[in-house]
């Protein structure tokens, strides 16, 4: 019966069988050191010439990088090993001798690695990132599922834009025009009126011709919507969710974070409640820090968000943005209608916005007015207006960008490493 590398701690002193690949190999004459991987982790196998048959020794000699094999051996604790364990190999069976592997043990350019992304994800670093991504997804869904949220799947093909922008991928839906979704939010609002607290988790698409380290064309969003939850309640759920995710990753992905060389002390500070500043206060901060050309009503760019985040040791909410720079559905502050009841959550260490959210407009007349101001066709959005005509209630929601969150928690320089097969401005392969 096969054991996995992740499970070897429960088999110390016993012989096990692994199925895996050879990641690397070196020899000191009478000993071969096999770096093995099986998808769950990495372990070193020690092969001593006078302790195995000549046939087994020769098989090991013939192994090339990424050759597939079965390995038998006795698990031994070793504090010097990254995983804390090594394998004294007793036997091996070759499944396939791999051809010369294109990704060598040397520096490769980013374009070369991206062209070979299907192979690059086998490396320790890329495997660690994808394992952490999976843990982040588990943590998000675990928090929402145990706090009364119901998962609802919105459509990917839509007849209109969520935010009235033109950055959409157009396609034909038989004889009609259709677009790839840029957000499931509007549909989640409908679902919230049926189920109370809901969330979606799926791919979204933005046809922005952007090459920044924060942008992907196809990315994944988690979008909760909550009936009878106001702006304040919305922020509380967001900070509880993010803190829960970070702490779960710290608890379950210690080895992967070490592989990435992540500063754990920065993540250990991520505990609720998070600091909050208003848009007005953020503008004042930027002026003090030398951004004197930033004027009230402008939207924050990456340098602005980074500078604001430097003043805090954990994520920070920026609340009450000007109405004119935010989406049509956001509820104005009753005490100050030129700003809306919204917030962006800015991650520390220069990773920018990871969540955007707001209380939604619940007044049908005000929403209709917003349609007119944003030149939105009533026929395309009539169903959304219906939500305010038939039992309107205060409600709020937010969208969390998975890849930016992964980049921040992993400490990555670019979001292209946060998703198995990134889609960027000039990349659709592999």
Walk me through the topology.
Layout: E1 15-27, E2 31-37, E3 42-48, H1 54-62, E4 68-77, E5 85-96, H2 110-115, H3 117-120, H4 124-145, E6 150-151, E7 157-158, E8 170-173, E9 176-180, H5 185-195, E10 197-205, E11 218-227, H6 231-252, H7 254-260, H8 264-268, E12 276-278, H9 279-288, H10 302-309, E13 316-319, E14 332-333, E15 336-340, E16 342-347, E17 352-359, H11 364-373, H12 378-389, E18 395-401, H13 402-410
Parallel strand pairs: 3-5, 6-10, 12-13
Antiparallel strand pairs: 1-2, 1-4, 2-3, 4-5, 7-9, 8-9, 10-11, 11-18, 13-16, 14-15, 16-17, 17-18
Describe this entry's structure for a reader:
With 430 residues, the protein is of the alpha+beta class. The chain folds into 2 domains: 5-96, Beta Barrel (OB fold (Dihydrolipoamide Acetyltransferase, E2P)); 118-417, Bira Bifunctional Protein, Domain 2 (BirA Bifunctional Protein, domain 2, 2-Layer Sandwich). It is built from 13 helices and 18 strands. It has helices at 54-62, 110-115, 117-120, 124-145, 185-195, 231-252, 254-260, 264-268, 279-288, 302-309, 364-373, 378-389, 402-410; strands at residues 15-27, 31-37, 42-48, 68-77, 85-96, 150-151, 157-158, 170-173, 176-180, 197-205, 218-227, 276-278, 316-319, 332-333, 336-340, 342-347, 352-359, 395-401. The strands form 4 sheets. The protein has an 8-stranded mixed beta sheet with strand order 6-10-11-18-17-16-13-12. It has a 5-stranded mixed β-barrel with strand order 1-2-3-5-4. A hairpin with a 4-residue loop joins strand 2 and strand 3. Helix 4 (124-145) packs across helix 7 (254-260), helix 4 (124-145) crosses helix 13 and helix 11 (364-373) runs antiparallel to helix 12. The longest helix is centred in the N-terminal third of the chain and has 22 residues, at 124-145. The protein is elongated. The two termini are 35 Å apart. The model has no long low-confidence stretch (mean pLDDT 96). Its main location: cytoplasm. This is Asparagine--tRNA ligase. One of its GO terms (molecular function) is catalytic activity, acting on a protein.
